[in-house]
Amino acid sequence: MSAAIDRTLAALADPVRRRAVELLGQRPRSAGELAAALDLAPPAMSRHLRALKEGGLVEDGHPHFDARVRIYSLKQGATGELKRWLAETEAMWTHQLGAFKRHVEGGE
């Protein structure tokens, strides 16, 4: 497993961060909006957003009208490597369980 997948899974390990990803999947939001929606203090939300950025899941930008505000959004294609790894893992388990079933049923 690659370091990028490790970082992504570590970022998603926390339920608050998973909920933030769900909210960002609906639309981009400011840190303040996310904090209010998740009932978190702003410093706590900042720590969660930092973890999501380090995990490669979100990115931030500034609206053209106010450079002081950061708007967070899901990073395009951020889960591609994780999806590939999950598909490969699922295929391996499907093969292994199929072989085990054939063995138990006396087919091997």
Automatic annotation (TrEMBL):
Pfam family membership, one: HTH_20
Domain HTH arsR-type: from-to ranges: 1-94
PANTHER family: TRANSCRIPTIONAL REGULATORY PROTEIN
Protein name from the UniProt record: Metalloregulator ArsR/SmtB family transcription factor
Originating organism: Sphingopyxis soli
